[in-house]
Design goal:
The chain is an alpha+beta fold. The chain folds into two domains: about 5-75, Arc Repressor Mutant, subunit A; about 95-225, no CATH class. It has ten helices and eleven strands. The chain has helices at about 5-15, 20-25, 35-40, 45-60, 80-90, 100-110, 120-135, 145-155, 185-200, 215-225, and strands spanning about 35, 60-65, 70-75, 115, 120, 135-140, 145, 170-175, 180-185, 200-205, 210-215. Strand 8 and strand 9 (about 180-185) form a beta hairpin. Mean pLDDT is about 85; it is low at about 230-233.
Length: about 230
């Protein structure tokens, strides 16, 4: 398949606008938002936000969710979230903090957050590193779940975690835009986040996609992700 440069430029241009980029970044929390909520987030009027959202929906980046008379939008699929997170990682420089509140919010996001539906930030990277170190994931010839990993993920997230989820890959490494190292994405990354949230090992922060590792989570993960034993030669 040969892609026309015009098509690529047109698609990229959708995210080249500051307000549209701000709204898409907000939607990385995985929730459905109203136009009014996204307008407030982007600092624009509701009619202007609706115009931008219509463009993003028509292009397939966002999907509409109707509930009665209310219209919500969300990212259309995990691949779109991955694209936006990758762009954020490539952009490099975070927005400058303008107050103590924004400094704290940025620190919370860097420590632990959701990347659409899986864990990111320092916590996500630490989990990914521990899974590699303990042989739950292998990355020598592309990322894959090992036999030990299948048992571990089944125990933590249930047998459905290992079942295919449409065309979405089971596992993939996702470059973390704050840590600049990979965390676990894919269907299994999403299943792990759901399982940890269900156990209250991670809890969401108010009005943010930052999450916190609870005391139960620290104990549970310390017991499950013990350091790998050194190999004997």
């Amino acid at each position: 398949m040969i892609l026309a440069p015009e098509s690529v430029a047109s698609f990229a241009g959708l995210l080249a606008h500051r307000s549209r980029a701000a709204m898409c970044l907000a939607l990385l929390d995985g929730r459905a938002w109203t136009a009014a909520e996204l307008a407030s987030c982007a600092g624009i009027s509701r009619p202007t936000a609706s115009e931008h959202l219509n463009l993003l929906v028509d292009a397939g980046l966002l999907a509409e969710v109707r509930q009665g008379r209310h219209r919500y939008v969300r990212l259309a699929r995990p691949e779109i979230a991955q694209l936006i997170e990758d762009l954020a990682a490539a952009a490099g420089e975070p927005a400058p903090a303008r107050s103590l509140r924004t400094v704290r919010a940025a620190a919370d996001l860097a420590e632990a957050r959701t990347c659409y539906d899986h864990l990111a930030g320092a916590l996500g990277v630490r989990l990914f590193d521990a899974m590699i170190a303990n042989g739950l994931l292998a990355d020598r010839d592309g990322l894959a779940v090992t036999a030990a990993g299948r048992c571990w993920f089944t125990e933590v997230a249930g047998p459905e975690a290992m079942r295919p989820a449409g065309s979405r890959p089971l596992v993939r490494s996702c470059l973390d835009w704050t840590e600049r190292r990979p965390h676990l994405g894919g269907a299994l990354g999403a299943a792990l986040h759901r399982a940890l949230a269900a156990r209250a090992w991670v809890t969401p922060c108010a009005a943010s996609r930052a999450v916190r590792l609870t005391a139960d989570g620290e104990r549970g993960l310390a017991g499950l992700l013990v350091p790998a034993a050194p190999s004997r030669s």
